[in-house]
Amino acid sequence: MSAMRCYSLALQKHWNKVKEALEHPIASDLLYFEADKLKLDLIAVRNGHCPFHLVRLLKALSLELWLKDVISRGIVAAPDRSIVQSLTAATSEFAQKDLVATKN
């Protein structure tokens, strides 16, 4: 059995937990990854496709599961949604300014 098949089977077996973890991903709120894209890529892996960035996908999933665990244990405080939203807005504004600067 190939290593890729092992990842695919593991995701199939534990898909409910993965799906639950990605419903409200904390790491995505903190701008580490795009939740929708991660979920689509993990679905592809579950279906047997091997993206070139498989290790990064697994690391992102691992980060999300770790964050949820340490927050549930009270080791780390959950991020304040208002702070996250202001960070997202600031990052978006910076990206737009950068895009305009590169076009000129």
What is the strand content?
A: under 5%
How does the major sheet shape up?
Answer: none
Mean pLDDT: 84
SSE string: HHHHHH
Query: From the helix content, strand content and strand pairing, which structural class follows?
Result: mainly alpha
Number of strands: 0
Helix percent reads over 70%
- Ends apart, CA distance between termini: 53 Å
Q: What coarse outline follows from CA principal-axis ratios?
A: globular
CA radius of gyration is 16 Å
What would your notes on this structure say?
With 104 residues, this protein is an all-alpha fold. It is 73% helix and 0% strand. It has helices at residues 3-13, 15-21, 26-29, 35-46, 54-72, 81-103. The radius of gyration is 16 Å and the shape is globular. Helix 1 crosses helix 4 and helix 4 (35-46) packs across helix 5. The protein has one domain (3-77). The relative contact order is 0.12.
How are the SSEs ordered, and which strands pair?
Layout: H1 3-13, H2 15-21, H3 26-29, H4 35-46, H5 54-72, H6 81-103
Helix pairs in contact: 1-4, 4-5
List keywords for this structure.
104 residues; mainly alpha; 6 helices; 0% strand; globular
In short, what is this structure?
This protein is mostly helical and 104 residues long. It is 73% helix and 0% strand. The protein has one domain.
